[in-house]
Amino acid sequence: MSRFRTAGHLASWAGVCPGHHESAGKQKSGRRRHGNRWLGAALGTAAMAASRTRDHTYLGARYMRLMPRLGKKKALVAVEHSILTAVWHMLTQDTGFRDLGGDYYTKHDPERALRRITRQANALGLTVRFEPIEAA
């Protein structure tokens, strides 16, 4: 991994960087790079499997969070990028994989989760009131 200074360099070589092309304030096609096709195929398979874990793993939760906004294919590329970044960190720091869990985003920003639940209930025509649970 000494050939790649950062995880971003590895992601760029593998072709899983998010594409970005803007001109005169307009978003143009942001296609991903071609990269290494064997690594891309393996990452694609791993990302597809991770996306089907839904809320049990961090990668499944990341896919479910990004999919409505980006679409299925771009969300898969984002998960591929996350997998490759994790691999780079594991190999450079000689550590094992530690999954953050499917509820990482809820624990990280609980107010956002409350706003989301409230918005969904309001869309159904319901009102919501949150009260903290008293410790036993």
Summarize the topology.
Elements: H1 7-14, E1 22-23, E2 26-27, H2 37-51, H3 58-70, H4 72-93, H5 104-108, H6 110-123
Can you describe what's shown?
By secondary structure, this protein is mainly alpha-helical. It is about 55% helix and about 5% strand. The protein contains six helices and two strands. The protein has a two-stranded antiparallel sheet. Helix 1 packs across helix 4, helix 2 crosses helix 4 and helix 3 runs antiparallel to helix 4. It is globular. The mean pLDDT is about 85.
Residue-averaged pLDDT: 86
Total count of strands: 2
Low-confidence stretches: none
Strand and helix order? HEEHHHHH
The helix content is 55-70%
Describe the sheet with the most strands. Answer: 2 strands, antiparallel
Spatial shape? globular
Helix/sheet category: mainly alpha
Termini gap = 51 Å
For the largest sheet, list the strands in their spatial order: 1-2
**Proportion of residues in extended strands:** under 5%
Distinct helical segment count: 6
Question: What Rg, in angstroms, do the CA atoms define?
Answer: 18 Å
Offer a quick outline of the entry:
With 136 residues, the protein is mostly helical.
